[in-house]
Amino acid sequence: MNKKWGLSAAALLLTAAVILPGCAKKEEPKEALTSAAAKATAMTSYEMKSKVVINDLTIDTGTNEADASTGQILSMLKNAELTIDGVYQAEPMQTELTTVLNLKGDMAMSFTVPMVMSGQKLYVKVPSIPFLPIPETIVNKFVEVDLKKLAEEQGTEFNPAQMDAQKVQKLSNEVMNTLLGEYDEAKYFNNIKPKDAGLPEGVDAKQVVQFQVTNDNVKEALTILVNNALPKIMDILSKDEYKDLLQVDSADLAKAKEELQSSEARAEFDKSLADLNKYLTINQFHLNTAVNKDDYPVYQDMLMDIKVNDPDKGENVTLSMNASNQYSKINEKQTFKIGIPQGDDVITLEELQQQFGGMGTGTY
Asked: Which of 109, 250, 283, 326 is an S-S bond match for 238, by CB 3.0 to 4.6 Å?
């Protein structure tokens, strides 16, 4: 089952991750996607709100003992919510993110983790997490991580290019355009009316474009992804301008591409794909993106509702989840609520390690 699950779910998630659609004026769907992706590279500051909700996650292994051991975890994950609120500016570089995880079920809990990044420094606030023995002396303190120093201690060199958000946007744009170019507009893309798109309050959209995969076209979609798009995407990742950003050896990418295109890999892929309908059911999978009057992609939402099963092993997985991402105050002067942590609010990574190390050395 693992191979079938990886083939289907990974491909769908990759598609969702790299598509960044939108429009300026009312355009054809694929043209609108390409235009908005290019516009996104001009975003030098913004506020963002992201949310992921697991509506349903069920794993049936056919073994009562295994089901019992995972049941408690699954009950916590069902209806779990992960939200990230953030502010970003490119110059001077500063980012702050506040992550909130809400777990449901019999062992419901919630905790918040604020983070700040400025230059080569990363600050992470120590949360109070139920059932974890975190020393009270460091709860709500910000742990300062010097990324340059950390890299040196690990025997590597700190590379500021890895934190270049605009280069990341440029890379995403190239990958997205390459991927979109392989899919037929009539089969996979369509415009939907903004009033029917379920947009949140405050999102003013001029056009909403939907990318959709169904049971009818999933085999073709995966074939296009693996045989057509991925080799071209690997070529993009191996470009010299992205070496510092990705820290990937071009020789490794070339080898991966060769293996992907080998006759053995193609035969194995075709064999798995032929029986895909026995293992995968797509109840719903789509990605909507809305753009505003200034052509920026201001809102995305993804719905994935799938079932994966392996009749030979009696294993079944049901996954239903929503994810959304919203941008506002694009290219405006930003207000940072947390700011750069200072003074007594900050502890070093070494002090954090000492605090945890001392937990087991109490005096009796």
From this structure: 250
